[in-house]
Amino acid sequence: MSLELRYFAWLRERIGLPGETIETGAATVADLVDELRAREDRYALAFSDMGAVRVAIDQELAGLDAPIAGAREVAFFPPMTGG
Amino acid sequence: MAVRIQREDFDLGEELRLIRAGRRDLGALVSFTGLVRDRHGEAAITGLEIEHYPAMTRRALEAIEREAAARWPLQAVLILHRYGPLAPGEQIMMVATASAHRAAAFEAAEFLMDFLKSRAPFWKKETTPEGACWVDARAADEAALARWHAPARS
Question: How far apart are CA B62 and CA B142, in angstroms?
């Protein structure tokens, strides 16, 4: 399926893109991260410590084990620092 | 109840005046304003860049606002957060809460701050003379959420 990815803050900088459209057969966020890591070193580096990465599926916070079937947009970003 | 996300600065006094305008039922109006400091520990800060996730930010802030309104009898709420490049001394954001009595207004303002620090998709990058650096989330900010985990008041 086709999926929009969004990257923010240092994830955006390490990957070198604000986002991209990909084709994926991943069932969960964790599977998707494994696919991305295998693509290129910059992805492997960005996703080397998933304890420092937060995920949103269609703009709602989600866990790594969350299914992505039917999702349109998955975003990856560091812990938020608003306020 | 209002959420605003903007690049421009805001006039705190004017925002509070607008909340009060035409109303005689408000008993307490509390506000908090976050400012850009010129130091972070030993490091001098020359600027702060705030990035956000536009498609998610409004939704996240409105959810936090709804949760506050479910817990306290609020007569008005404003959450205003800026993004883009800011200089030391500038205003980053504000929250304001109005209620018949001060306890609800104070508590709700703290609740809003605790949640938007760790649950609204903003990221801060500080510029120092040695270079720029993303601000790490503080464990204390995450811990601050725990005290609100009691069920909402009915």
Answer: 20
Chain B residue with CA closest to A53: the answer is B137
Interface of A with B in 49-78 (CB under 8 A): 56, 59-61, 73, 75, 77-78
A2-72 CATH: 3.10.20.30
Chain pair A-B, CB pairs under 8 angstroms: 68
Predicted interface score ipTM higher than 0.85? yes
Q: Give the best residue of B4, B32, B48, B53 to mutate against chain A (max A CB count within 10 A).
A: B53
Exposure class string for B94-120: b at 16+ Cβ within 10 A, else e: bbbbbbeeeebbbbbbbbbbbbbbbbb
Q: How many CA atoms within 13 Å lie on the side-chain side of A20?
A: 9
Domain ranges, ordered by start, for chain B: 2-141
Domain boundaries, chain A: 2-72
pLDDT digits (tens, 9 = 90+) for A12-43: 999 999 999 999 999 999 999 999 999 999 99
CATH code that applies to domain B2-141: 3.90.1170.40
Rounded average pLDDT per 10-residue block, chain B, 154 residues: 97 98 97 96 95 97 97 98 98 98 98 95 96 92 86 50
**CB of A25 less than 8 A from some CB of B:** no
pLDDT for B151: 54
